[in-house]
Amino acid sequence: MLLLFVFNGHSFSSKMVKLKIPDHQVAGHQAKTGIIGPLIDDSGKFYKPLQDDERGSNELAFYTSLYSDPRIPSNILKFFPSFHGTEVVDASDGSGLHPHIVLEDIVSNYTNPSVADIKIGSRTWHPQSSEDYIRKCLQKDRETSTIKLGFRISGLRSMGPTNQLWQPHRKVLMDLSAEDAMLILRKFVSSDGNVDEPDCVFASRVFVHVLEELLELKKWFEVQTIFHFCSCSILVVYDKEEIEAKKSARAVVKLIDFAHVVDAKGAIDHNFLGGLCSLIKFVKDILAGLSDVETSNPKP
Amino acid sequence: MLLLFVFNGHSFSSKMVKLKIPDHQVAGHQAKTGIIGPLIDDSGKFYKPLQDDERGSNELAFYTSLYSDPRIPSNILKFFPSFHGTEVVDASDGSGLHPHIVLEDIVSNYTNPSVADIKIGSRTWHPQSSEDYIRKCLQKDRETSTIKLGFRISGLRSMGPTNQLWQPHRKVLMDLSAEDAMLILRKFVSSDGNVDEPDCVFASRVFVHVLEELLELKKWFEVQTIFHFCSCSILVVYDKEEIEAKKSARAVVKLIDFAHVVDAKGAIDHNFLGGLCSLIKFVKDILAGLSDVETSNPKP
Lengths: 300, 300
Description:
- The structure is a homodimer of 300-residue chains.
- Chain A contains nine helices and 13 strands.
- With 300 residues, chain A is of the alpha+beta class.
- In chain A, the strands form four sheets. Chain A has a five-stranded antiparallel beta sheet with strand order 9-8-7-11-12. In chain A, strands 3-4-6-5 form a four-stranded antiparallel beta sheet, covered by helices on one side. In chain A, strands 1-2 form a two-stranded antiparallel sheet.
- In chain A, a hairpin with a 2-residue loop joins strand 1 (2-7) and strand 2 (10-15).
- In chain A, helix 7 runs antiparallel to helix 9 (270-288).
- The interface between A and B is medium-sized, with 30 and 31 residues.
């Protein structure tokens, strides 16, 4: 059955789909907490509620034009979740029908995904934002590791091969020093994040490939003057069991959250690039710290 | 004659030196305007008044340890002005004896230097600064091109081979778009900055070498976790007559202003690096825009 639904001046088609709350979300508005949050279906799609202010229209406009934008190189498009338009579905908070942006559910192929959501940049606002929004963002940028490290870990879960879940509380992730962030990223690629001395047994298999992906992104960010990605995250997903079982298994690196993407107006996104380079340094340092026993790959 | 002078709890030796106000300063506190500003002597030294708050002690501490710091690679030391200790000399504003940091006068070897002072980074303050200072800096960062471009041109003069001086007013340099900044940087390497269509005749000779220097700096900034250089500038100096006359003549690239350098605490200086990469993109684009007639060097 198809219905027509009008929201914020736009009309959306509505379809009856059976949806559920995602298990593996680590950051952002979470439907679990009773507020409106994303939903997933059984076919690998992720339904992100369209925000009813310019954040929603911004993100929708971004996805709508992204895949037909000739300025985006094809090797860069793989970093974005695929986009399946919009659909009006029942909101997770029980408030009734609400338009959602329909995206690829990045973790749908994993049984027990380990996920890190890392918000990139030492500034999460752009100059065109409202004074109130800038003030709020600036406060959070100063309270978290954003200004110090050029990124903050918004959320993270590490699922051990024998199902030890380690998911540090958001408060723990708030104000990380470089040393704290290093330890958390090392735990993320260890068999059990709950121990003080992480074994980093997955570091080489996961981070060698993650590093390649980040360096490919960096190369693009050094030249692209199309977008400034404010408050955008890098999502890293992998499955420990899969990595152990299959030689071809690799981590996935995606860019997510485009509600605050603005026109670059002729300059590169120096804010995102700086933060990305900072994250790259952490990943390189972790790889460089591995003993030869731990890695079968050459040190970078 | 040597005197001992106590300032801000520290004692300094005082020497009678004949000093004058520099002709070619483009940014910073300028002695010309009746306030305390830097002085130069005839032997190629630059006397920077020691600020009587932590900015002064910070900058002095930075220079004092810099040249004996084993963490700084030798190829990077060349980017810093050489340091000759402190001296108490008559302040430029007639207020009497005042301690000065004695540095290399970078422009002393040039008859008619063209100079650009480019403050790097999209944030000129660090989280340890006072609230009042952060507020002031943030306002200036938003009013200038700092946040948009990741740098601002604090001052610039271009001296033509037949003595046409072009020195845009600070107000002109305040809020540059990417297009404005591009035009100003192109004028900086043209025979006459006063015309609307800059000829870029010095672009190749000046910017090919500047680019090499910036890329060398970038390589270091991608890995160094020693300092965060807040509110630090890159100074580019060259002499048009010299460039025309001598095949070996090259532009000089220096880092200056270290009153707001802080401990990196384990993270790279993503703020400086991002701004540096933005400037590099401008220089590369100018070089890439040159016709084959204008450049005898291969395009980068």
